[in-house]
Amino acid sequence: MPNAALKILLMSAEVVPFAKTGGLADVAGALPKALRADGHDVRVAMPRYGRIDRARFDLSVALPPYPVPMDDHDIEAGLLQTHLPDHDDIPVYMVDNQHYYERDGIYMYEDDADRFIFFCRATLEGIKRLGWQPDVIHCHDWHTAIVPNWLKTIYKHDPFYARTACVYTIHNLAYQGIFGYRVLEVAGVDEYGFIAHPDMPHLNDVVDFMGRGIYYADIINTVSETYADEILQPDFGEGLDPLLRDRRDRLYGVLNGIDAELNDPAADQYIAAHYTAENLAGKAECKLDLQREAGLPQSRSTPVIGAISRLADQKGFDLIDQIAEPLLLHNDVQLIVLGTGDQRYHDRLNEIRARFPQQIATFLTFKAQLAQKIYAGSDMFLMPSRFEPCGLGQMIALRYGSIPIVRATGGLADTVRNFDPTSGEGNGFAFHPYHSMALYTTIVRALENYRYRHTWQQLMLRAMHADHSWASSARRYVDLYRRAIATRSDRPPREAYQKNAS
Ligand code: ADP
């Protein structure tokens, strides 16, 4: 039955609007809606972090407390239930446990391995109690990578999961979830040992969740075609490229979409005025509103460059750091940065702000509503990433007519085409070498083109008309689900890679 509706369980550590630190949450909140629109029965599972308000999200009890095996004993889990906002046909299950999740943040705790093993195990046990048998489990990033491992080991003889296939999505290879031997015991897979790949001796005595997901999943994908190619090379493979090369016949690239409902300049509830490609008047109002909120002089003609990002090396902030002062000194331009991350970038941005208070505004925090105002009110959007699995910021910016200035890598290369003034082709400004001069000259090129109103308007229209909605990417995921179901096997790909701990 090639077109039958599928039962899909999507497992993620973060899901919009319940918990978010980055693009993973956006994907986990938006992909299910597109799958549902395509007729599939899709359900989502995540931990119930302490800050997820029970009343606000209308959480109800899905199951009475039940035991979850952890190491050599059981720990009790609760399973709560709600649904995606405005989509009561997409259930969201939340694993509840005070000890593991009643904390201020989402990650960066010493017992993160236990916290996510517990989430995964409680989800599999809970779904089984509910009697809802998924055809495929779609896991995301290291937090859920133990699931494909289990499906081929401790759950392989469990009739409930005997036919369940697993797709594993790599959102960012830089975060692998590396822990010591003990977590194999916690997860109940110590008898299967470490992954011992001949070309990756560094895995011989650590538990690398990301590596295990790649090793055990039926199908693996990452979030753009270019990144799927890049990670086969040592430069981008973060030490896992030999394993990825072994599994390349099962490795795909599927570009993320953006949530077209939440990111719509014609309906966005957080912006000062609505606009469309056909009537751009509202965008000028959004710009003035943003300049006011940022405490910068209100000027229609001064180009505003926005940046919304984790403040991390990956995102190219070392390059921004090097060019910010000359850029502001020599050009009539305003820079508005929203982000949190490495302290040294916080410090540097504060320094630059102190020197150029009329030209740069910095919001060193995480604020979803302000992000929308920046997408809407800026003329350009800066994203010079060192590497970028997909990147959502540039796609959201395109939709809001904020022209991206990017480094052509990973998903940025797949979504932003460099503007060529002779042919009029392209939707942004892109450069290749990871070098501050390349970034600087690209920004100057954008500022030059900004002066030509007609050219710029054409660029904006092209940007806004591009379709980055989830519909086509969701269909590609359905193809991967069907491929995983058709080709699933009980066995890991190469048992020779397994090494018992001594
Ligand atoms: P990442 O590598 O962080 O996942 P993406 O570009 O894929 O990068 O996704 C980042 C998402 O998080 C975008 O939706 C962006 O608007 C949002 N975001 C990043 N930093 C902030 C912030 N400080 N405040 C609000 N939203 C943010």
3D architecture notes:
The protein is of the alpha/beta class and 502 residues long. The protein folds into two domains: 7-257 and 472-498, 3-Layer(aba) Sandwich (Rossmann fold), CATH 3.40.50.2000; 281-467, 3-Layer(aba) Sandwich (Rossmann fold). The protein contains 18 helices and 19 strands. The protein has helices at 23-37, 98-101, 112-130, 146-151, 182-186, 209-216, 225-230, 234-237, 241-246, 281-294, 317-330, 343-355, 368-377, 393-399, 410-415, 436-450, 453-465, 471-487, and strands spanning 7-11, 41-47, 60-70, 73-84, 87-96, 136-140, 165-170, 178-179, 194-195, 207-208, 219-222, 251-253, 304-311, 334-341, 360-363, 380-383, 403-407, 429-431, 498-499. A nine-stranded mixed β-sheet has the order 3-4-5-2-1-6-7-11-12, with helices on both faces. Helix 10 crosses helix 13 and helix 11 (317-330) packs across helix 16 (436-450). The longest helix has 19 residues, at 112-130. It starts with 6 loop residues before the first strand and ends with a strand. The model has no long low-confidence stretch (mean pLDDT 95). The protein binds adenosine-5'-diphosphate. Adenosine-5'-diphosphate binds at residues 22-23, 26, 308-310, 338-340, 366-368, 371, 390-393.
